[in-house]
Amino acid sequence: MQVILDDAELADVRRAARRQRLSTAAWVRQALRAARRTEAGGDSGKKLAAVRAAARNAFPTADIGDMLAEIERGYAGGSEP
Questions:
Q1: Angstrom distance (rounded) from CA 29 to CA 35
Q2: Residues in Cβ contact with 4 at an 8 Å cutoff, skipping those fewer than 6 apart
């Protein structure tokens, strides 16, 4: 992978790497890993709130075997029992 930085950005990255006693490449790898973790994680508070909101609702349900049989009958063009 090649990343093009202007001179000022590259100087900033090199200074940051030196402060942590890392090579520029190692510093960039660490920064990219941290960015991926942040991006992948998202806002856990929002996710938890969505799960809690869904848990407050009452949805119709059935036995899984009955549901699967009904789905298969629908695929086959059959009628309900």
A1: 10
A2: none
How does pLDDT run across 5-25, given as a tens digit for each residue?
999 999 999 999 999 999 999
φ, ψ of residue 53 to 5 degrees: the values are -65, -40
The packing angle between helices 24-41 and 7-19, to 10°, is 90
Does the pTM surpass 0.70? The reply is no
Count of all residues that appear for the chain in the document: 81
Contact 67, 80 (CB under 8 A): no
Question: 27-59: b or e for each residue (b if 16 or more CB lie within 10 Å)?
Answer: bbeeeeeeeeeeeeeeeeeeeeeeeeeeeeeee
Count CB neighbours of 20 within 10 A.
10
For tokens 């093009």, the residue is 4
Q: Specify the amino acid at residue 31.
A: A
